Amino acid sequence: MSAGNLAWLRRLLLRNKRLKMLSLILAVLAWYGIHGTVGTMDIGRGVPAVDTGSDVRKLAGLPVLAIVRPDPAVNVELAPARVSVVLTGTSSELQKLTRADIRVMVDCGGVRSSASYDLPVVVSVPQWAAVAAEAQPAAVRVTLTPAR
């Protein structure tokens, strides 16, 4: 390297030392802030993580409850009206749950009457149960008609 290139490199490295130190400190803090919190974040709140030694339990024929607005009055037809729920968790947690603990719902609050919709099924389990729940099928056909 020539003397001119070395002088240019020296000026590049030695100018603005305070700004360079500040940016290095901020970069280290940002790196630590991101990597220090990723392991403790609660991803998927409401669905607790289950270990790899988990068991599966299937409950068939659970009725789907339709959540509708009280006014105007409508008739609700669900197809299918009953679904299966697959629960995943430890065997001790699965043994504690009964069919009465599981609620299967479909929210019809934002739909209009005289129409059919495919809406997602929501499965609710008690907060104390460390299990994951999945409805099969995941959606039902909802038909709303005005009440007479």
Number of domains: 2
CATH topology of the largest domain: RNA Polymerase Alpha Subunit, Chain A, domain 2
CATH structural architecture of the largest domain: Beta Complex
Succession of helices and strands: HHEEEHEEEEE
Please tally the helical runs, counting DSSP H or I stretches of 4 or more residues.
Answer: 3
- How would you describe the shape? elongated
Euclidean distance between termini CA atoms: 92 Å
What spatial order of strands do you see in the largest sheet? 6-4-1-3-7
Query: How many whole angstroms does the radius of gyration measure?
Result: 28 Å
> Portion of residues in helices?
25-40%
Q: How many runs of DSSP E, i.e. beta strands?
A: 8
Mean pLDDT: 82
The low-pLDDT segments are 40-45
Query: Approximately how much beta-strand content do the residues carry?
Result: 35-45%
- Largest sheet, described in full? 5 strands, mixed
The top-level CATH class of the largest domain is: Mainly Beta
At a glance:
This protein has about 150 residues and is of the alpha+beta class.
Structure characterization notes:
With 148 residues, the protein is α+β, with helices and mostly antiparallel strands. It folds into two domains: 3-38; 55-146, RNA Polymerase Alpha Subunit, Chain A, domain 2 (Beta Complex), CATH 2.170.120.30. The protein contains three helices and eight strands; from the N terminus they run H-H-E-E-E-H-E-E-E-E-E. It has helices at 3-14, 17-38, 91-96; strands at residues 55-67, 74-79, 82-89, 103-107, 115-120, 122-124, 132-136, 139-146. The strands form two sheets. Strands 6-4-1-3-7 form a five-stranded mixed β-sheet.
